[in-house]
Q: What sequence folds into this?
C-alpha cells in the first residue's frame, strides 16, 4: 500500500482524508459518489438472493450490509485493515447478518481465494491506494466466475490536474491518496494495460452528497453521531468546512467513475 492509512497518532487537522472521515468524523460509507455511485454499480450487475459477491476493500462493511439486506444475497468483505474488519464484524453481529455476510483481513493485490469463486466483485476506492493497480484488477477478475462482473468506483478527474491544483488537494484536503487518481481516460488506460478490453465506464458528476444522502447512507443514529462529532469539536467542524468549500469550488475537477468488466 503506497498511502498509509494510519489513525493512531494523527491530528484531526492534517491527517489523511480517509483517516479523518473514518476515524474522526465516524463515516462508514467512504468512497466518491457514496451510495448513489454504489447504486450505479449494482445496476450493472444482476444481483439476486443467490448471488455471491466479494466486496474488495470493504472498509467498515457498509456496502456489504446494504447489498445483503437489499437482495438477501451473500457477501464476503475483505480489507487490509484489521481494525476496520473488527468493526465490520461487530456491526455484522449486531445486525444479525452472520449467515449472509463474512469479513476477513486480506490484500486486494493477492486475494486469498481460488479462481472462479464469486458471481460478482465490487471495489470502491481501492485503486488509488494500491501499488500494483494491474495486479489488483486482475485479482478481482481471477476470483469471479465466467460471465460474472467486476466493478470499481474511483475518483476520476474531469480534467487533468496541474501541479498547483494537486498541491491544494494535498494541503487543503490532505487527500494524499489522490496523487494516484487518474482522469477517466487515465483509468481506462490502466484497465487496457491490465488486458481488459470490454470495459464499461459510467461517469459520475458529484463526489459528495447532501444531508439526505448522508442520512440514507449512514442511517439516523450514525448521522446523529457524525453531527455530534462535528458540533462538539471545532477542529472537525473547521476541516469539514474547508474541505466542503474546496470541493464545491472545484467541481470542474472532481468526478468519479464506475468501471465495470465482464469476465469472458
Ligand atoms: C476509501 S476506503 C473505501 C472503503 C469502502 N470500500 C467504502 O466504500 O466505504 C479504502 C479502503 O481500502 C482499504 N485498503 C487499502 N489498501 C488495501 C489493500 N492493499 N487491500 C485491501 N484493502 C485495502 C483501506 O483499509 C480502506 O478500507
A:
Amino acid at each position: 500500500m503506497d498511502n498509509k492509512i494510519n489513525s493512531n497518532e494523527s491530528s484531526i487537522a492534517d491527517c489523511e482524508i480517509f483517516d479523518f472521515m473514518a476515524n474522526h468524523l465516524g463515516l462508514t460509507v467512504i468512497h466518491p459518489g457514496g451510495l448513489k455511485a454504489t447504486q450505479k454499480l449494482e445496476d450493472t450487475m444482476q444481483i439476486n438472493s443467490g448471488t455471491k459477491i466479494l466486496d474488495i476493500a470493504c472498509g467498515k462493511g457498509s456496502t456489504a450490509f446494504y447489498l445483503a439486506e437489499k437482495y438477501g444475497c451473500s457477501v464476503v468483505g475483505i480489507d487490509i485493515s484489521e481494525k476496520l474488519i473488527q468493526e465490520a464484524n461487530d456491526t455484522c453481529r449486531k445486525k444479525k447478518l452472520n449467515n449472509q455476510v463474512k469479513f476477513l483481513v486480506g490484500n486486494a493485490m493477492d486475494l486469498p481465494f481460488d479462481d472462479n469463486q464469486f458471481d460478482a466483485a465490487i471495489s470502491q476506492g481501492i485503486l488509488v491506494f494500491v501499488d500494483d493497480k494491474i495486479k489488483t484488477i486482475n485479482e478481482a477478475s481471477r476470483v469471479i466466475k465466467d460471465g460474472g462482473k467486476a466493478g470499481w468506483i474511483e475518483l476520476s478527474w474531469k480534467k487533468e490536474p496541474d501541479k498547483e491544483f494537486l498541491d491544494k488537494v494535498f494541503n487543503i484536503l490532505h487527500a494524499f491518496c489522490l496523487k494516484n487518481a487518474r482522469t477517466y481516460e487515465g483509468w481506462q488506460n490502466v484497465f487496457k494495460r491490465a488486458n481488459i478490453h470490454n470495459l464499461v465506464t459510467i461517469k459520475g458528476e458529484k463526489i459528495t452528497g447532501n444531508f439526505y444522502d448522508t442520512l440514507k447512507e449512514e442511517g439516523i443514529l450514525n448521522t446523529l453521531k457524525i453531527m455530534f462529532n462535528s458540533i462538539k469539536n471545532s477542529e472537525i467542524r473547521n476541516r469539514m468546512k474547508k474541505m466542503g468549500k474546496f470541493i464545491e469550488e472545484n467541481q470542474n475537477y472532481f468526478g468519479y467513475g464506475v468501471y465495470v468488466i465482464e469476465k469472458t
User: Anything to note?
Assistant: The beta strands are 52-56, 74-79, 101-105, 118-124, 144-157, 182-183, 200-204, 254-262. The CA atoms of residues 239 and 245 lie 10 Å apart. The mean pLDDT is 95. The first helix runs from residue 17 to 25.
